[in-house]
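Q: Could you fold this chain for me?
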Amino acid sequence: MTANRTILHIDMNAFFASVEQAINPALRGKPIAVIGSAHRTVITTSSYEARKCGVKTGMAVWEAKRCCPELILVVGNNRRYTHTSSEIMKMMLDYTPLVEVFSIDEAFMDVTGCLRLFGSAENIAYRLKARIRNRFGITCSIGIAPNKLLAKLASDMRKPDGLTIIKAEEISRVLEKLPITDLCGVGKRMGRHLRLLGITTCGELGRFPVAILKKKFGIVGEYLQRMGKGLDDSPVLSAEDAEPVKSVGHSMTLERDIDTREEILRYLLQLSEMVGRRARRYGVTGKTVSLYVRYADFDTSFGKQQSQGDYISLSDDIYRAAVRILDTVHLEQPVRLLGVRLTNLRHRKVQLPLFLEEKMKVFATQAMDEVNNRYGDFTVTFGALLASPGKKGSFVISPAWRPDGIRCVDVG
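A: Sure. Below is the predicted structure, expressed as structure tokens.
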């Protein structure tokens, strides 16, 4: 049932930067930018004071400093951000069980069934904003609309600390002159393709012949026209209702560019252990291992995958597969980022192998997992990682991060 719904989209304002400013009063009201590590040169996010000077996410530090000479750089604390996000998501569950985490700083709430209890969606929004501000000292923007597409659009209309409501009778007016790239799901590339067809606004997209859109974009064409009309039937999926994941992966932006095989293998082992632990924790095995590499120039990257003879989840097996893939390529530059992913999943516990040596490997892995689950990641680890100067964890947070379940990535 998707008719007459009331959906909220909550978007934390400059989340990482706002958390840092709330923790450190000396940073409040000043232009700051959060970076992944002291040795990295890319802006993760920036405060609104810095944004007014032109500082943007993904910008090189030297470029950001040119826009804003007084910019203050802060090395991000991912554990603090994930903890804050998890606590905010718990607040949302006080109003409705239908909470869908969209990213670390965004979530949807379907409050259709609880409006009588709390009076109105607007009341829920104001209560939530006040609770977040009082506990964490940060703000959020909230959009209220009949569906997820429009709720997200509404939350972007008034930042920071905004509240925007799009009512059913206002949809056509709101969308008529709205640029197509303001819609979630229509990026720069899709925007260019649509402009070649003479489509620049959502109103034009909604009226454009669907047959032409389907011929150009396939089945996506029909969905594009519906987006132009403000139509979206997708439900708000709670963690219990979410579709099973199709992959378990982890990537790491390194503190410095590396070019020696020994260093690359050490990070691959660390990543393989992180992927393997999550796979084993949630009872999945995979048959395909993928390796992703991004070079130091930041623009050049590649990914390769390799199918295995059997389904695997042991870290050692994942690592060996990643190394085999690495051995098939010639690295042209120092490496900036590495990623390992396990796909073609099967939701089934690992079965004990027949041979004693393989059984001992499984028992050793289970013992490591038990210790690390109790005392923290990498409390017990491979000997090759003990000499590693690298940080055990993630330098950046994946957009797929969730506070619970298999997408919950342990971060540094």
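A (continued): The longest strand covers residues 335-347.
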